[in-house]
Design goal:
single chain; 295 residues; 8-stranded mixed beta sheet; 43% helix; binds adenosine-5'-triphosphate; binds magnesium ion
């Protein structure tokens, strides 16, 4: 059962409102897949990365933080449940709420649950409790975040070891991702994020976006942006996208995701967490290390 007592770690963290207060010696690496903007591909990225990591041999917990509009189960073709609400209301144990497929465990959210909607819950605190209580059970914990920059989502983003900010070439997506990075920096002291550009039409477009976002974030926020890579805008019918994404291992989509995940896991240990000193790399340094966009 989840405890919401004043003395627990999440209470303390939320009250401190400080990214620097992060715990040490944790086992799982926590990754928030986030954006601010809706529909950019957060859930697609979170589910695909979780699946690749699990198939590589890592033990992975995928947490659907879109707690009442849960899409992870839908993408994975699993039954919709009210487990998340039952967990919160202490009717069901955490272990009994998970969908398990080998190394991949999923805690889905609810879908339009009226009781969850009406209940006053600090979802960020509840999810941080899950992270704290289960960090030793997994290698990676991936948080599929909802659209919007609510305090709850920002707290989860700040608490995570890594933030994968998903951006598309749409101007409003670029603006919203900058707003997210700015608030994380100003309010939570977060000064590094990972950038994944989704729905790209061409290599030059990808390069332009990397340059623009890197320069803006470094110049105005003195933040560090790690470039994960780009994913092509797939010209496939919308209702077939999930099937291609999750089941076609010979697709360029799959291969590109594998490349991105490998780049992250291979370099992951070397990616420094936030410190008090701000590191501002030269803009060009990103291009030396980025994963190339494959059309
Ligand atoms: N690389 C891509 N190429 C083509 N379509 C894509 C790509 N990535 C995602 N999509 C499509 O974009 C839509 C939104 O994807 P997804 O649900 O993953 O976004 P989201 O950011 O999680 O949305 P929300 O903000 O509603 O949670 C889906 O229809 C998905 O199939
Ligand atoms: Mg989503």
């Amino acid at each position: 059962m989840l405890s919401l007592k004043k003395s627990n770690p999440s209470d303390w963290l939320v009250s401190q409102n400080k990214y620097q207060s992060k715990k040490t010696n944790q086992k799982a690496k926590t990754i928030s897949v986030t954006a601010g903007k809706g529909g950019v591909g957060k859930t697609s990225v979170a589910v695909k990365m979780a699946k690749i990591l699990a198939e590589t041999g890592y033990k992975v917990l995928l947490l659907d933080c879109d707690t009442n509009l849960s899409n992870t189960v839908v993408k994975l073709g699993l039954p919709i449940t009210n487990y998340f609400y039952e967990l919160l209301s202490a009717q069901r144990e955490f272990e009994d709420c998970l969908h398990k497929d080998g190394n991949l465990h999923l805690l889905s959210g609810c879908n339009g649950n009226i009781d969850l909607f009406n209940k006053t819950l600090e979802v960020d605190r509840v999810i941080i409790d899950i992270l704290v209580n289960h960090e030793r059970d997994y290698d990676y914990i991936i948080l599929d975040c909802p659209a919007g920059i609510t305090k709850e989502t920002l707290t989860l983003n700040a608490y995570s070891d890594y933030r994968f900010v998903v951006v598309t070439p749409d101007k409003s997506s670029v603006t919203d991702s900058y707003s997210l990075i700015k608030i994380l920096n100003k309010e939570f002291g977060v000064n590094d994020n990972h950038l994944l550009i989704n729905k790209i039409s061409s290599e030059p477009q990808y390069q332009r976006m990397v340059k623009t976002l890197s320069e803006t974030v470094e110049t105005f926020l003195k933040c560090r942006l790690h470039i994960l890579g780009g994913i092509k805008n797939e010209e496939i019918p919308v209702d077939q996208f999930d099937s291609v994404l999750l089941h076609q291992e010979n697709s360029s989509l799959h291969k590109n995701f594998v490349k991105i995940v490998r780049k992250f896991t291979d370099e992951g240990e070397g990616v420094a967490l936030s410190t008090d000193s701000v590191f501002v790399p030269k803009v060009n340094s990103h291009f030396e290390h980025d994963v190339r966009f494959t059309v």
